[in-house]
Structure prediction request, 356 residues.
Amino acid sequence: MAALEKIPVLNPLTLRNTVGGELADIFEARGIKNFEELIGIKNLRSKEQLSTKTLRKASEILDDSNVCEYLVDFQKEYLEEKPRYMANYNQAKKTYTKLKKVLPLLRGEFTEGYDILDDILDFFGVDSETEIFETSEKQAALFRSQNKIEVDSINLHAWLRRGELDFNILNLPDYNESELIKWIESREWMAHIEDVEYFKSLPSIFSSFGVGLVFVPSLPKTVYGAIRWIENKPLIQISDRGHDLISCWFTLFHELGHAIKHKNVEIYEGEINESKAKQNKREKEANKFANEYLFNGDNLRKAVFDRKRAGLPMTAKLLAEEFNVLPIFVSYWLLKAQYAPAFQRRIQIDFVSQYQ
Prediction:
């Protein structure tokens, strides 16, 4: 059964027999079909409580004195347990409300649970929601320490988890940094900068270098990208936050900078290209790496912001010629500077289609 066809949260009481249901089963097991007529109660199976008089009458009909005592104890246990079951059910509904936003990332792979909440637990690879919240907070704490901004801890955890799942099925060879650097230095990718399909094909190219490049749709209040190291292989994960192809290229090269310069360091990117005052040493180095390969250094960025402050007119075409870069790269910085944004060219990209 597909996850979205299920009940979001199953009430555990529905898995337990009511006293009426238990009595109905006993009647049927004894071959008595007209038990509701005999006992004088309609919809017997739905009854959570029956009077002692009714239970004695059932014993007489069944000619079994033990039935009354058994059902009295059965009913007592059910009624005593019901508040706990309902409290757990209500808590589960609250948990589902917090976690249902991650459903798009399940991709129809997790369908074996008895309800949708159980499928979500399977996605996270845990037995209880407590484990989800604890891990989410640990990851959020690392994010905050690196970025100094707020994050949706559940969304971040789910986004990172999806990356791990996709990484685990890649069956990568050993990481070959020299081959990765050779690909970067070849600049063969430069001819495909405006090609969305080429960018989406990069994971297969990177696999040959032992690099797990994974694209995961953005979730609100999370990240542009992240790099983690699993069994000495880099997992570079990129979101389609902003749905801008050049932003994705910058994020990719920023993460490549981390991969080459900061081995075995786990980094979550809350923002890309923040002001230098907010960047730590690693972020400055990763930005410098990306700027060198994509923009021929940092002079283009400086010129765009300086000329905007000075009120000087600018066009992507003229700046591209001046700094020997592609016009689409100039538009990237003009948009960052909010200089005539309505007139700047963008190339749309999203990673949602591969999750449908």
Notes: The radius of gyration is 30 Å.
